[in-house]
Design brief:
The protein has 9 helices and 10 strands. The chain is of the alpha/beta class and 325 residues long. α2 packs across α6, α3 packs parallel to α4 and α6 packs across α7. The radius of gyration is 18 Å and the shape is globular. It binds pyridoxal-5'-phosphate.
Length: 325
């Protein structure tokens, strides 16, 4: 891929999606005394400050191409905020009305941003007793029910990120190849905190296609590691955007998975803070989880190797949480 949006006049903001920078986290790795490299793709530099802009664009353009989305039709999707922000941007510039359905457990700045971008935001209460900031699979199931009702009521197109191939394709066609091109060296490992599993699967497929020796690991919260075959003893955790304890994810084919890693909410937070202090990289909880998992790989299975990770969204999305002082 040779095209870079930095040097071109863009017809719309959608053209600024993707082609994110990748940074060698050498300061952070040196500080921990580990040997090897962690290469971090700064997905928070997308226009909506997350990697999910990529899938929003791909799902909408696939649906347009397949005639599934008609001019003037409303688009609906459930979101932890990031896919919704991407869809608000893409639908906004393409002229579709967009309704985002989100749990009240996700941080409020996400809803405010989607509204600012012209989306209608429908907030869904969490399960009784659930804690704000900790969205479980049961909370997400409620959000899904409301999204399904809205699709029926409004004759809308559901940009279903758990099912539509565009989620996988965005990362298979773009994010994965960008990692390979930017790294300029062999990638020994890739690890990714899974929500839908689209980023993991798309990148893993592209990386393994180039070099079948690249080992790919799913990252889950401690206590909700069902993809690793463990029981969900602690479904509530602070790593927003994933870790929903859903045992089967459409895009995560077994041949793409070399292993599963668990990261606690506290370890994810600690690493996100360390990223900010040591690398000037201001990213969210799941970015912290991915880098903590990569550090664990350098300590264990992939000592001395090169690990690629995605820093999925911006630290700005969590100013209202306890991630920052
Ligand atoms: C911040 C963040 N990290 C990680 C993920 C998980 O990504 P994926 O759905 O591609 O597995 C999401 C998904 O919404 C997210 O918002």
């Amino acid at each position: 891929m040779t095209f870079s949006w930095h040097s071109h006049l863009l017809p719309s903001i959608a053209g600024a999606i993707g082609q994110t920078p990748m940074v060698d986290l050498s300061r952070l790795v040196a500080g921990t005394g580990l040997s090897g490299r962690i290469l971090a793709k700064l997905e928070y530099l997308n226009p909506g400050f997350s990697k999910k802009d990529r899938i929003a664009l791909q799902m909408i353009e696939d649906a347009e191409g397949q005639g599934l989305l008609k001019p003037g039709q409303t688009v609906v999707e459930l979101t932890s905020g990031n896919t919704g922000t991407g869809l608000a941007i893409v639908c906004g510039v393409k002229g579709y009305r967009f309704v985002a359905v989100m749990s009240r457990g996700n941080s409020p700045e996400r809803a405010r941003m989607m509204r600012a971008l012209g989306a209608e935001v429908v907030l869904v209460d969490q399960m009784p007793g659930a804690k704000v900031g900790e969205v479980s699979g049961d909370d997400l199931a409620r959000v899904d029910e409301v999204a399904q009702e809205l699709v029926r009521e409004r004759g809308a197109f559901r940009a279903d990120q758990f099912q539509l191939e565009g989620n996988f394709r965005a990362h298979y066609l773009n994010t994965g190849p960008e990692i390979l091109e930017q790294a300029g060296c062999a990638i020994d490992g890739f690890c990714d905190f899974a929500g839908t599993g689209g980023s993991f699967a798309g990148c893993a497929a592209a990386l393994k296609e180039r070099d079948p020796r690249t080992r790919c690991y799913l990252v889950e919260p401690e206590g909700a590691a069902v993809l690793a075959g463990q029981a969900a003893t602690q479904p509530n955790h602070p790593i927003q955007g994933g870790g929903y304890a859903i045992p089967h994810l459409t895009f995560v084919r077994p041949e793409l998975v070399d292993g599963c890693l668990q990261v606690s909410g506290n370890a994810a937070k600690a690493m996100a803070r360390k990223l900010a202090r040591t690398e000037g990289v201001f990213a969210g909880f799941s970015a912290g989880a991915n880098v903590a998992a990569a550090a664990a790989l350098l300590e264990g299975d992939l000592k001395g190797g090169t690990i690629a990770v995605l820093l999925s969204d911006s630290g700005l999305k969590y100013l209202s949480t306890d991630l920052w002082d």
